Amino acid sequence: MNISNYKYVYFLGIGGIGMSALARYFKGSGFTVAGYDKTDTKLTKQLVLEDIPIVFQDDVNLLPKFMGDKSYVLVIYTPAIPKDNLLLQFFLENGFLLKKRSEVLGLITQDKKCHAVAGTYGRTTI
User: For residues 59 and 3, what is the distance between their CA atoms, to the nearest angstrom?
Assistant: First the structure.
């Protein structure tokens, strides 16, 4: 899969620290980025200030217009999104390309040198 074939990236669960970092990465790389999260937080407010639109209702009618052409849309989701989420169901039922956050991290680093930190405790102190 070549990420550069896509123009738009939609995030399901954009408000987490890992997902928001990916949203910023894609925005900085020239993609049109938008997303959904259940909760409005300091982090989501900052993303909105960075011109990344976010909705906080699980409502298909609130999706951006660019979602109409699914061939150019990459949907990135966190497994924290419940299986019964209406947006997730819409993307699955309508043939959008969905990738977990962890898969996308692998895709964007596959052709680059990467220093990664893994583990359960102490990651944030590094």
Answer: 26
Task: Pick left, alpha or beta for residue 34 (phi over 0 → left; psi -120 to 50 → alpha; otherwise beta).
Answer: beta
Dist. CA 88–CA 52, nearest whole Å:
19
Which of 89, 94, 97 is closest to 6 using CA atoms?
97
pTM of the model: 0.89
17 CB-near residues (< 8 Å, 6+ apart): 43
70-81 pLDDT tens trace: 899 999 999 899
Q: Which residue intervals of 1-126 are DSSP H helices?
A: 17-28, 42-49, 86-93, 101-109
Please spell the DSSP secondary structure of 83-102, one letter per residue. Answer: TT-HHHHHHHHTT-EEEEHH
Q: Which two tokens stand for residue 107?
A: 């895709």
